[in-house]
Design goal:
This protein is mainly β and 131 residues long. The chain has no helices and eleven strands. Strands 2-1-11-10-7-8 form a six-stranded antiparallel beta sheet, with no helix packed on it. A five-stranded mixed beta sheet has the order 4-3-5-6-9, with no helix packed on it.
Length: 131
């Protein structure tokens, strides 16, 4: 099972947990969780006017062996208006490239942060991959 928690944060609200959203999915091949602005396809949805987040920004996909990966999907623009950073518990934070994919090791936890390049906004997505 993959469990996600998401908080949309402005500079003034840093550290706040109010308004946190949660989603989970079993580790079944093909299971999918998405984060973005489009309520029709995303389980975790950011505010509509946060244009630094794509309609479908992050996609968590369970592979045939029950392992999970996260992809920063390329949007309609050639250059993104955000940055995405991945931190696995106990490891150094690393950037996730635009259009890039990272594996989430079994039993791992951590955080993915989508940062607005032009303002004090961020979307913090915590994850826990239960085995």
């Amino acid at each position: 099972m993959l469990e996600l928690t998401m908080a949309s944060v402005t500079g003034a609200d840093a550290g706040a947990t109010a308004g946190m959203l949660m989603a989970d999915a079993p580790s079944d091949p093909g299971a999918l969780l998405r984060v973005g602005r489009d309520q029709a396809v995303c389980r975790l949805v950011t505010p509509d006017d946060w244009l630094f987040v794509s309609r479908v920004h992050l996609e968590f996909l369970c592979g045939p062996d029950g392992s999970w990966q996260v992809t920063w999907l390329q949007g309609s623009q050639p250059e993104p208006s955000s940055e995405v950073r991945l931190t696995l518990a106990g490891q150094v934070t690393q950037p996730l490239p635009y259009g890039g994919t990272a594996r989430l090791p079994a039993g791992s936890s951590g955080e993915i942060v989508i940062l607005d390049r032009t303002g004090p906004y961020s979307v913090n997505v915590g994850f826990y991959h239960e085995v």
